[in-house]
Amino acid sequence: MKELEEKIIQADSLETLEKVRVELFGKKGILSAQFAKMKDVPGPEKKAFAEGLNKNKAALQASFDAHYEVLKAEEIERLLKAEAIDVSLYGTIAHKGALHPVMETMDKIIDYFVALNFAVESGPMVEDDFHNFEALNLPKYHPARDMQDTFYFKDGGLLRTHTSPVQIRTMLERKPPIRMIAPGTVFRRDYDLTHTPMFHQVEGLVVDEKGRVSFANLKSILTDFLQYMFGEVEVRFRPSFFPFTEPSAEVDISCIFCEGKGCRVCSHTGWLEVLGCGIVDPNVFKSVGYEDVSGYAFGLGVERFAMLMHKIPDLRSLFEGDIRLLEQFR
Ligand code: DAH
Predict the structure, then answer these.
(1) Separation of CA 186 and ligand 1 centre (Å)
(2) I want to staple 244 with a disulfide (CB 3.0 to 4.6 A). Which of 136, 142, 181, 330 is the partner?
(3) Helix, strand, coil shares of the chain as percentages rounded to 5?
């Protein structure tokens, strides 16, 4: 009996304890064998014999159960240690994405005008001659068409060279008043430090009853817009020419690199040209059938804004998809 109890207590793992269980309590185990001896015990002693065996069995079972609990607790402890997670260890570093600087600049521009109740319009990138040129007061063979090197398709279609055709599409679809911007992708046959064949523009157009839209309105909104984009800069309007506006102006900000003193970026002029604008030419209204209205329009290149805001020297680098460059703008 003592010996059997030793067997139980000496088991040092659940596995050995299980072997001991089979050895003691199993069908062919030691206890079964002892019970089998019952048949040889003379009648009057049977009862005492059986009682003795049962007592032993119960005692062994109790030791077994107690030892099982001890080993089980040890096993759980061991597993917990083995499977423990060190929460102070660094995890895998996840790469954080970010908006492309051009899109980020675009969003900032859109936010400004949306806050002033401009609708955001869009149009197709594959345009036709009418919307991209003709309706914008750029008749065939007009020399101003040379200002924009156009990608043409064989069927006469073209990749839009500016977002101005969205003006035309919006006016053809709606009645005045109109207050819209058109952000979008445009294409020109150009490739150098500051030009890529694909780039982005934001066009703006405001049309209302005749006499309700003035050059002063245009100046005031664009001055405020440019100071929102670039901070405390000076803004100047220079007379210029666009076929779709009359009068037209190009807008400069004081150079943000040298604060107007003159540097390489501003070609020592102290000024950076950032957009074109003007009062909508009556011929444009004629081509969309608008009468007795007045309006102003403007157009800007998003990449130029992004280059200036982030001091990017080569525009082409923005479209090469080099993650090392893009990571700098997170
Ligand atoms: N469409 C012109 C361009 O691509 C930009 C522009 C200038 C748009 C003056 C306008 C405007 O609406 O009034 O160069």
Answers:
(1) 12
(2) 136
(3) 45, 20, 35
